[in-house]
Predict the 3D structure of the following.
Amino acid sequence: MSRTGPNVRAYRAAIISFVVAIAGGVVAALGYGTDLGEDWLGIGLAASLIGIGFGLVCWAKYLDFDEHAVEEREPLVVAPPAKQELHAELRGGLEPMGRRKLLVGLLGGSFVSMFIGFVGPIGSLGPKPRGERDRTSWREGIRVVTADGEPIPVTTRTFDQLVTVWPEGHVGEDDAQVVLLRLPPEVLTERTVRNGTVEGWVAYSKICTHAGCSVGLFGIDNREPETLRQLVCPCHQSVFDPADAARPVGGPATRSLPQLPLAVDRDGFLVAAGPFDRIVGPIAWDET
């Protein structure tokens, strides 16, 4: 007796399902590691999980795991026709055994591919390693742009206004977001200027050094005897002095915001003169 009909279709469906699962894991890994985005990551992981599940169901169908049969008691003496039928059944049973290697290999490849697809998201659950936090998209010569992708002309005359900016081509990256201000040049301290300012323009990482929240508030107190300018993190009220290299002056933060050195390109737009002067975000217990 040979396996035909539904069994062959189930076998082919199992192969296709496991191949889809492998492709899904590859797509998920590419979606996480490239610019394809989180949508492709989700689609790939879904395809991998569904492919493995459906493939196992089809494999069980191929092996007749869902088939129920009742066999009447036969005489103790087996007649020659019965022997021939038994031999044919045994020969037919060798066929799925030979095909099992292919299915096992595809199933193993599906699990490996799915595991690779999950490595990135699982690793993202914890804090970034020091090496990762020390490398952002900011590089020397890369333009400073707004959320709409517009560059910032150095000739803008407005002072004491905050805008969130990113490196050109990397708008929306969390670890690259920057608060950009233009302060009167005479209020900037020497070390702030030395770290890289242009005509009063100064830029700091928007990620608070206390708990990683966004430093998105800028306040000015111009009451006598002096004007105070402050960057504030709304989560835990950490306060930084933008005129003095974002030095912490209040709240739980104990470390200055990383400063981004600035320069001007030949078209008159602000660009980065290099990466941040230190690691972005909160420091770990074993870092200084």
